[in-house]
Amino acid sequence: MKRREFITAFGAAAMTLPLPAQAQKLAMPVIGSLNRPSPGSETFGEAFRRGLKQMGFVEGQNVSIAGRWPNANEELRDAAADLVRKRVALIFTADNGGALAAKATTSEIPIVFVVGLDPVAMGLAASINRPAGNATGVAFQVSALEPKRFELLHALLPHASLVGVLVNPDNPNADVTGLRSAASSSGLQLLVLEARNLPELEQAFATSVERRANALLVTSDRLFNLERRRVVDLAALSAIPTMYPWRDFADAGGLMSYGNSLTDAFRQGGIYVGRILKGDKPADLPIWQPTRFEFVINLKVAKTLDLEIPPGLLAFADEVIE
Predict the structure, then answer these.
(1) Is residue 16's pLDDT more than 60?
(2) pLDDT digits over 98-111, tens only?
(3) Spatial CB neighbours of 84, under 8 Å, sequence gap ≥ 6
């Protein structure tokens, strides 16, 4: 067959490919998003998409996202299985339970997670530097920041002696022994206040007032984040200076917050998703640990509490809300 005849025949054959085959060839990769609804989802979603864009992926142009938003733990496994059945290219989750559900459901589809616990202890990866399996992502140890939070509270209230700490006893990250040690290092006595639901949350604040706690530290927990506006309101009603784990609380009217930048964590999650879509293997991508921390002071709240913020504390703040 002559060259011109071959090219003509090949072109004709390509034109007659079945439509499903052509569609499959042109189909965009689909990211399965496995996350439970929570405040701030829109902001974190934007950060995730910024990370994707850094790697050359834009939703609707060359990648699509299939979201699953189960409300309960028991629904996470079903949602993960549904994404696997749909043969998504990758599963992204920013939920501890979601990461475990995805890992238990598939050992083949890549998983990118953003979690607040130790991913090695959770069984998500063999090690931080070499995950070795089909999952990698971002991990930050929220409890590791408690000593600094107590230190900042003590700098604000040098004469404080009793500090309440709000914990959810159902949260595996709520290490009361570690909290006691961190408080003791700052010369503070600890009043542990447990809350598993909204009524217990309200009772915890009532107890802090009754026991005359000088200040309160709110630990990182899904319940407290979901109810953060109520938590901030209860702190205002109790007139108790309160330290929070994320800047979202300070933005919502809380006094102070100190923690990792969650927007940075989600952006990095988007970058890792993009790298895997381009061919990197999860097993070879070290788990990313945030090194940027945000200390935010809300001066408006300080004034309502008749608190004068020491100049050194103001100088240390990354942002002051006036």
Answers:
(1) no
(2) 999 999 999 999 99
(3) 105, 106, 109
